[in-house]
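Box S1 | Example of a co-folding query
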Amino acid sequence: MTFFDMHCHMLCGVDDGASSPEMMYQMLEAAYADGTRAVCLTPHFSPYLFGNTSEQVGAVFGELREYAARQHPDLELFLGNELGYYSGCERALNEGTCRHLGESRYILVDFPGDVSFFELRADVENLMRRGYRVVLAHPERYPCLSHKLSWVRTFIDDGGLVQVDASAPTGADGPGAKSLWKKLIQKHLVHVVSSDGHNLTTRPPILSPCLPYLEKYCSPEEIAALTFGNADRILHDRPVLQFD
Ligand SMILES: [Fe+2]
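Box S1 (continued) | Returned holo structure for fe (ii) ion
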């Protein structure tokens, strides 16, 4: 099985992901060993937490790309960001300091775990109204959505996409995330499963642990879309497959 990991924090020294070049390369090796053959690097874009890392991100990405080209020519790398939503973030998106997913129109957006439903809905809808194609990062980690799956359906109907973390069904992100992950998958409200890998131990950049859970609820075609095909479609700006 081969994977496309569309959300991970391997780039070193730019957020709370890899903390050294050695760790960055080891994370890439761990992903490759797990079957990953395409990665979109998505460091946090949260100026209040990490400063403006845009140039540094570009430089470190260049280093990782050189390493990957030498070690694994069959591994494809893309660059994006995980935008921690804040009021006025459109400016960073328009200026390009906060990156879209590759060259696509899609942006990966996350919120604090304790965000309220009304705040999340208003902020997501604000971005969509302004023409951004929003991929909502790991909604299973937002308790406010546990009884708002009808809104998630509306969000998808309006063109939004949903990415969940591969670690959640194992319980690694807590019982609430595990339960909501299962509900989202069962109702086919997910387009992409990614690692959201931050390190080699507690949050590794691997996808295979979620496969037994996906197999319970999804056809082989849907699993292929969730773990590779839809991420590939997003990065090439094409419509994703939706299963009902
Ligand atoms: Fe993340």
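Residues 54-71 form the longest helix (18 residues). The pocket of fe (ii) ion is lined by residues 7, 9, 82, 196 (CB under 6 Å).
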